[in-house]
C-alpha cells in the first residue's frame, strides 16, 4: 500500500494511555465503540486495535507495518521484528516493569534451582520455559488465565508474574526470588516495512514525536534572570544534564537563562537558585521536548 | 473445613452482574479493591474471585466447593464436576450464548468440511478441536488472545467465536456457518463436596435463592378482582403456565386473583383482562419468585 | 401499512420523560444518537421523534398514525385530529400548564382590552390572535423564538407565555392578567387511522397502559387486617374514591383489606387507620393501576 | 403559632439520611443552598437545619417544637425535653452507637480508675465529667474539635469517643476499656408544645410514619399458598414475631399466607418453606410497615 | 447609559462555548440558573442571554449595544447592524457552516430551478425566499420548527438546512444541490453605539481579546536553539506566515528562535527542524496570541 | 527526629485546596481514606491531618514541627508559635476573611458598646471576649457549634462570625457593626523546631515553593516584540510592579520583552500594548513564580 502506514494500537489496559500519548504527540485517535479500527486525523496512517500479546505476530506477518507493545510479548512470541524505540509512558510509574519468579512467603524455595520438578503458573509461558531451560532446571510450566497470584500453593508451586512495585505480590503473601525479564513498551516495525524509505521516515517521525511528548510530561521549563557576576553560582545549581540557553539582555550586566528541568527536582532547585541570587524565576509547562 | 462453603465468583465481565444477582438473592458481597477474596455477609461462605476459564479447575481440584462459570469453559477444561443448576442472568439478553463457526462473508466456505487444512482461530481451543475431530475434518486450531473477529482472512481462515446476537460478527463482515456449542452460566460443585450433606444443603439453598431472584427479575405480580360470573373469561386470558391464586371476598359474588406474569406480556394481557371485565387491576414489583 | 402503527414521540424537553413513561407502561424505546427514528421493542410499532409543535401536522397528514403532544400545539395548528386521551406525566408537577397573558408588574394594564394597539410577543401566535379577536381587541401579535419574558417593555407591551407555577414570570417582574388557554399532553390520532379496527385497538391499548403507568406513579397499595367489629370505623377513614377489596381470613372474626391510595394522603390516612384499630398495615409500591 | 409545627432537622452528617427518611415516610424536604430553612411539602410544618449538638437547646427554649438529634447530645446539654421515640436509621448499620473510653493499645490502663490525674480528650465533655465523677475518679476532661483518636498519648492519656464498629479506634491503635454511654437518634419535643393537643397529634403522626418507613427498609413481604394439611409445618418455619395473615381460597383445601419478614432471614426461610411444601412463594418490596 | 456596555450572549447551543471563550479571553461570566441576565466580572459590561435568532433585533433596536450571533440570522432579520469581527470558535470544527439546498437522494431534482412549484421547508425562511426570488423560481417556503431533515418527501420536496460536514443530511438520505449561504459567528454592534467613542473602544477591545483567545487555541509556542551557520536551513522549514523572533545568545555562534505554529503542523515541522540541526526544541502552550 | 519534618495539614474545608496547592508547589500528598496520616512523596516530611482549630496546639507542644492554619485560630488559642509566612489561596476569593460583630438588621445596636449585658454567640470565644474586654463592655460570650447566623434574636443578641463577602449574613438579615479581627492562612512553626538549622531550611523551602505556586495561579507570562523607538511607549503601558526582561534580538532595531502580569489586568493591557505598536504578543500560562 503506497503512502499508508498500518499501525497497531494495544487494546486493553494500555489503550487509553496510548491514545492520550498520541494526542499529546499531535495525533487524535477516535475509538469507535466496538470496532477494531479507530480513526486517526492523519490520512497517511491506518490504525488497528490489537491485544499486546498478539502485536508482534501481526507486525511480523506484515498485516501491520508497526505497532506498540511490550518487549515481553515480543520475546514470548519468538518472532523477528524491528525494535524502533522504547516508550515509557505507563501512568502509575515511569519505571520498567519486571516479570519475577515468586514463591509463597513461608515456602523453603530460595532460588530457581530449588523448584526442580515443580509446577510454575504464568501468562508468559515460553519466556519462563527458556529461563528454566537456561538454568537446566526441569519444571512444568502451566498457562494461567490471570489471578496467578492466588494459585500457590494449591494450584502451583511458584509463579512468573509481572509487577511494578511488588505490592500485589506482597498482598498475596508471595516472595520474589528472581527477575526473569524486564520489560517496557516498544514501538516495533515489520523488517521490510522499515526498509521502505517512506515508511521508515513515517515511523521515525512517530517515534520522535511520541518521545517528545513523553519527555515533556515529566519536565518543565524554567526562565530566570541573573547578573553576570552571579552566573557561575547559578549554573552550578542547575543539573548538569541539559545546558541552559543563556541570552543577552539590554542591560549588559545581566543575562536570561531558559532551561528544562525534571519536575521532581524543581522543589529543590528553585530555593538554591534564589540563594544564588537568580531573580524573576518563572516555571512554565511544556507540551513537547526534543533536546 | 467444617460448615464453611468455599465459593468461586467469576472475575471480569460477569463479576458485577454476579454480585448484583447475589444481592437480589439475599447475600451482599463486598469486593475489596484488588484482593481476590471478597467478603460476604454469611459466616458460612468464603468467596474467591476466579476467571471463568479456570473455575472448573479450582472446583475439580477441591480448592473451591462450588462456583459460577459458563458451561463452555467447563467442557473446554474436560474436567469432571457436578452441574447443580443453570443460571441465566446476563444483562444484555436472557438468551443462551452460542459459540459459532464463522468465515469471511465473501469466502466460498459453506460448512465445516470446506475448511479442511485451514487455520481456525479461537479462544475455545479444545472444544473446537473436538468439533472438527467429530466431523473428521483436519484443521489447525490456533489459540487467540481476543479480537478474534479481525483475524480472517489474513491470520486465520475461520474462527470459532462466542456471540449473543451476531451483530459483532456482521460488523466484521463474517458469516456464521455452524453452531459449535451453546453455553450458559452454571453453578457447579466439586463432586465430593456435593456428597457432603451440609455442603449439599448449602449449595442447594444458594441455587434455590439465586433462581428465585432470577425469576423475579423478568416477572411481575398482578392482583385483580372479578365477579364470579366473569371468572372463566378472565382465566382464559391469563397464560396457562402459572395458575392464579383465587381468594374469597366478603362480597360472595366476587373473587380476587393474584398471579405472576412475564413482564413482557403484561402490555397485552391487561387490555384483555379489562375487556373480560376484571376490575381493580394492579401490577406490583417482585423481589423473588419460587413457584 | 398493515399491522404497523406509526407513532410520534415528542422531541426535546418532554423526550426523556416520555421514554421513561413508555418503559413503565411496558415498552422500551431506544434513542439512536442523532437519528429521528428510535427503535422500540414492539414489532407492531414504528417510532419517530418530532417536535411537539409539528406533531399534529404529521398526524393530520397521515405521516404518523398517532403521537403525543400538547393540546396547545394541536389547537395552534388548527388541524383536525382525534384526541384519544390526556396524559399528565410531566415531572415537575402533575397540574395542567397554562398559557397566560402577562404584562410588566408596574404597567397600568389590568385586562386584555387595555392592550388595544399594543405589541404582544408569544410562541403561540394563532391561539393568541384568536383570543384577542374573540374580545374584539386589535393588537399586533409577534412571533418570539423564546426568552419571551424579557421582552416587555422594550420589545413588546405584553406576552402570552406558558407557565406552571408562575415563578419565572414573577422573577422577570411580570404580572398575569388572564389565562389564554390551559394545556396538557394528549395522545392524538389520525382520524382515518383511528377508524381502522386494528390501529384503533393498538392505540387504545397504548392509551390504557400509559394511563395505567401514570396512575401507579402517584399511588401506592395498602394492605391491612381489621376485626369485623371495627370494619365500619376503618372504612370511614379510607378515601371514598376506590372501594377496597375485603377478603375473608381463616380467622372468621377478621378480614383483610387491600386498597389503592394517593401517595400524598398516606401520611394522614395511616395514623387514622391505626387509631381505628387496623393492624398489620403495609404499604407497597405499584407498577400499574387500572381501576 | 397555631397549627404550625417548628421542626429541627440535624445539619451535617445525618442531614441527607434524614431527608431521605422523611421522603420514605411521606414528606419531601427541599434544602435551599446555604439557607437554614429548607422547605417541606406540608403546610403545617416549618423546618430548620440545626447542628445535632445544639438541637436540644433550641427545643428546650421553644425556638423549635420538635427535632431529631442523638440522645448523647441531649444528655450532654443537661436540658429537659420530651423524648418522643427512638429512630434507628443510620446508613452504615442499624445498631446503636457507643461512646467508649479508649486508651493506647500498649498503655497499662485497664479501667477508668487507672486514669486518675490524667487528661481525657473528648467532644462529649459534660457526659464524660459525670462518668468519672460517678466513679470518684479525678481527671482533666479537655474539649476536642475532632480527630480525637490521634491525640493519645501526646495530647491526651485517654479519649471518650463515639464508635459503631470500633474499626477506626483499632486503626489508630487504641483499646476500648469501658462504655461511657450508648446513643441513638431520637425525636425530641418541647414539653409545653407536646402538651398542646394539636402539636402532640402532629408529632405523634410524624413518629408513627417515620417508624413505619424505618421498619419497611429492613423488611419484605412474603406471599405463599399452602395446602391446609401442611399449614402447621409451614407456620412452624416462620419466625414467631409476626403472625401471618391466613386467607381463604376458592379451593377450600388451600389457604394463602401473607407475612412480613426481616430481609436478612429470607435466604434461610424460603428454602425451609419450600421443604414444608409451600408453593407460589413470592417476595415483594415494602414502603411502610405498621404492625 | 454612560460607561456601560450592554452585551448579548447567544442562548442555547452556543452558550457554553461562548462563556468558555470569554473566560479564555479574560472575562468570567456566571449564568444564574434560569435568569436571562448572567453576571460578568467587569463593571463596565451588562450581559443578557438572547437566542441567536433574535440577537440582531435587540441590537438594532438599541436594547443591546453589541452581541454575538450568526451572520445567517443577521441576514434573515434584514436589519441594519455593524459587523465588528468574525469569531470562529465552534467546538466541532473551525470551518464555516453552510445553509444548503438539499433534496431526497433518489429524487430527480438537480438544481434550484427544478423545484418550481414545490414546497421548501426551512428555519431560514426569508433568506430562502430571497435565494429563490433571485433565481426567479416560484416555490412555497414553509417554516420548520426543527427536524427538517426528515420532512422530505412527505411534508416537503426540498429543504434549506444548516450543515458543517453534511453527515446528518447523508444519514437522512438527502443530497445537497446548492449552497444558499455560508455563515459564521459575528460580534455585531448597534450603529449609534459603535459611533460612541467609549463604546467603540470597549467593543474593539472585546473583539481584540476574543480573537487573541481564539488564535491561541489552535496554536502553540516553539522555542529552539540553532547555530548561526544552520539558521537559513532552519528558517526554511518554518511556515512563512509568522516570522520567528531571533534572539542573541551569550555564545555568539548560536541564536534562539521563538515562534508560533499551528498545532496541526507541529508533528511535521519538528522532525524537519531536527533534521536541520535545531536543538533544544521545546513546545509550550499559549493562552492568547496577538500578532 | 533527625531530618524529618512533621507537618500539619488542615483537615476539613481547606483540606482539598491545601493538597492541590502542595501539588502545584511540587509535593504530592495522598489522603488514605479515614487515616489521619496522609503519605507525601518526600522522604523528609511526615504529614498529619489536624483540624485548623487545634493546629497551633499541636505545633506549640512540638507534636508537629510546622502546620498550616488560620491566624484566627492561632490567636484564639493564645499559644506561642512562629508565623513563617502568610498563604492566601482559598478558592472563592483571594481576599482576607474577617470575623465581624453582627446584629439583627432591625435591632437598635450600632456599636459594640450598645451590647452591654447581652449574649454574644460565636465559634471564636476567646478572641471575642478579649475584644469586648478591651472596650470595657461586659457581655456573655457563648460557644456556638455552627449555624451561628440563625441564632439572633432568639438565642443570642449578636454574633461574632467569619465572612468573606457578607452575603450569608445579609441573607440571614444581619447587619455588620464592627470588624473583630482579620484572618488569613499561615504557615506556622514550633519555635524550637524553627531554631534547628535543618528544619528551618526545610520550612523556608516549603514557604518559598508554596508562595511560588500561589503567585503563579493569578499571573500569566507575556512575551512581545517592540521596535526600540517604541520601547518607552510600550514600557509605560506595563504595570510598574515588575520590570520586564528586555532581550536583544538579531535585528538590532528591535527588542523582545518577557514579563509577568496579574491575570485580571491582561484584558486591559494587551489592547494598550497593541496601540503602542507592540507585535507578536503572546500570553502563556505559568506554574510557579519567584520574583
TrEMBL record, chains A, B, C, D, E, F:
Pathway: Amino-acid biosynthesis; L-histidine biosynthesis; L-histidine from 5-phospho-alpha-D-ribose 1-diphosphate: step 1/9. Its EC number is 2.4.2.17. GO terms for cellular component: cytoplasm. Keywords: Amino-acid biosynthesis, ATP-binding, Cytoplasm, Glycosyltransferase, Histidine biosynthesis, Magnesium, Metal-binding, Nucleotide-binding, Transferase. Feedback inhibited by histidine. GO terms for biological process: L-histidine biosynthetic process. The keyword S-adenosyl-L-methionine does not apply. One of its GO terms (molecular function) is magnesium ion binding. Its cofactor is Mg(2+). It catalyses: 1-(5-phospho-beta-D-ribosyl)-ATP + diphosphate = 5-phospho-alpha-D-ribose 1-diphosphate + ATP. It is found in: Cytoplasm. CDD domains: PBP2_HisGL3 (cd13593). InterPro entries: ATP-PRT_HisG_long, ATP_PRibTrfase_cat, ATP_PRibTrfase_HisG, HisG_C, N-reg_PII-like_a/b, N-reg_PII/ATP_PRibTrfase_C. It is an enzyme of class 2 (transferase). Residues 51-210 form the ATP phosphoribosyltransferase catalytic domain. SUPFAM superfamilies: GlnB-like, Periplasmic binding protein-like II. Residues 216-288 form the Histidine biosynthesis HisG C-terminal domain. HAMAP family: HisG_Long. Catalyzes the condensation of ATP and 5-phosphoribose 1-diphosphate to form N'-(5'-phosphoribosyl)-ATP (PR-ATP). Has a crucial role in the pathway because the rate of histidine biosynthesis seems to be controlled primarily by regulation of HisG enzymatic activity. Belongs to the ATP phosphoribosyltransferase family. Long subfamily. PANTHER family: ATP PHOSPHORIBOSYLTRANSFERASE, ATP PHOSPHORIBOSYLTRANSFERASE ATP-PRTASE. This is ATP phosphoribosyltransferase. The lineage of its organism: Bacteria, Pseudomonadati, Acidobacteriota, Terriglobia, Terriglobales. The gene is hisG.
